[in-house]
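Trying the structure run again after the queue cleared.
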Amino acid sequence: MEAPQHFTLKQVAESIRRTITERYSRTYWVMAEMHKLNATRKGHCYPELVQKEEDSIVVEMRGMIWKQQFERIQQKFHEVVKEPLHDGMELLFHVKITYHPLYNIGLEIIDIDPNYTLGALQKERQQTFERLNREGILNANQQREMTLLPKRLAVISQADSKGYSDFITLLNGHPKHYHFNTFLFEATLQGDAAILSIQNQLKRIEQIKQHFDAVVIIRGGGGEIGMHCYNNYELAKAIATFPLPVLTGIGHSTNLTVCEMIAFRNGITPSDMAYFLLSILEDLDAPLDKLLLKLPQQIRRIFQDINNQFTQLTRSFQQKVQTALSEEKNDFFNTVKDFEFQTKHQIVYSNQKLSELRNQIRSSFGYLFETQKNKQQNLVHLLQIHSKTVLNSSIQKINAGEEVMLRALPRKIQQESAKLQQAELHLKLLDPITVLHRGYAIVTNEKGVLSVKNQAQNGENLKIVTEAQELKAKITSS
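Done. C-alpha cells:
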C-alpha cells in the first residue's frame, strides 16, 4: 500500500494564502459594526468587526488598518461626520480579504464611507419619528402646561460641562437678579451610554416631580455622531410622555434630533435655553417697569391730595376739640362739687356705722370667750375620767396575762426537756462508736469510705477500723 503524501503546516498555510489571494483578488464594500478600534502605539489599528442579530454577535472577524491609511481615513471621516472614529459604530468598510499564517483570515481596511454613517443616523431618526406619530405621543410633551414662573428646574447635564456652566452663569447673572432653583442630575450626554443614563435620571425626577416646574437637558457642542442617541425611540418616548415640560439645549444648529423636535421647547445651545427662561420673567416684569415710571407722579399727586385733606381735617378737628374741652371743663367742675358733697355725707354715715359695729364686737367677743372657756374645762374633766378608766383596765389585763404565763411555764419547760432527751438518744444511736460496738467495721481507701461511688480496686490498700483495733489489708483479687 502506497504511503499517504505528507505536508508541513507551512505548506498548508501557503496553499490557503494562494487560494484566497486568487479567489478574492478584488476589493469589497462590507457593512459591519466596529466593536473595538484597537489602535496601537505605532499608529496601526486592528479593529474587531462584528455583525449582530437581536443583540447577539453572529459573525466576528479581525480587521487591520495600516498607519498611513488610518491617518487618511480618520481625517476624512472627521471632516464629514465632525467626530473621530470610536468603538461601537456601524460603518461601511472598503476591504480586501487577506490571509496570514499567524493571524488567519482578516480584512485589510482600505477606506470607510462617512456618508453611510450619516445615512444610518438619518434612517433611525425617521423610524423613531414615525413610530411616535403612530402611537399618538409625538406632541404629548408640547401639550403640557408650563407654570407661570418656571423657576424650579431639574437640570440633566454634566457638572464639568461648559454648556452647564454657561447656563447657570446666565440664569444667575441677570441685572435684575432673578432667582432660579436648579438641581443637577448628572448624566452621560453623548453616545449610546447617554440613552440609559438620561432615562434613569428622568425616572428619578418623576418620583419627585412635585418639586420642579420643568426639566432642562443641556449639553455642549459636538458632532452629529455624538447626537445619534437623541434619535433613539426609548429616550424620545420617555421625553414625550414625561409629566413635566422638557426643555432641550444640546448644542448644535443643524439636523434637529427627534428628542429636540418632540420636547416642549428646544434651544440651539444651553445659553439659548437660559435666555428663553429669562425672557419669561422679563415679559412678566415689563408691565411693572412701565408702572414704575408712572409711580412717582402718581405718588406725588396722591400725597398732595392727602396733604390738602389733612389740613382741612386738622382745622376742623381743632375747632371741635376746643368746643369739646369747654363742655368737658364745665361738666368736670360740676362733678367735682357733687363728689365733695357726697364724700362728706358718706364719711359721716360710715363713722356712725363703725361705732355701732365696734360696740357689737366687744359684746359678742366677751360672750364667746366665756362659752369657749366652759367647754374646755368640761373636756379636761372628761379626759381625766376616761384616762383613769383606760389605765385601770390595762393593769388588770397585764396582771391576768402574768398569771397565765406563770401557770403554763413549768409545763412548757418539761415538754422541751423531753424533746432534748429524745434528740440526744437519737444522736447516740447514730454515733460511729456506737455502730462499732454493735460489731460493724469502717473500711476506707485513699479516697475515703468505700461506697457505691468509691469501690475498692484490685491491688489497693485498705484500712479496717473496728471497736477493738485498726487493721490494714490489701486486695489481691476482685
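The mean pLDDT is 84. Worth checking whether this holds up in the mutant runs.
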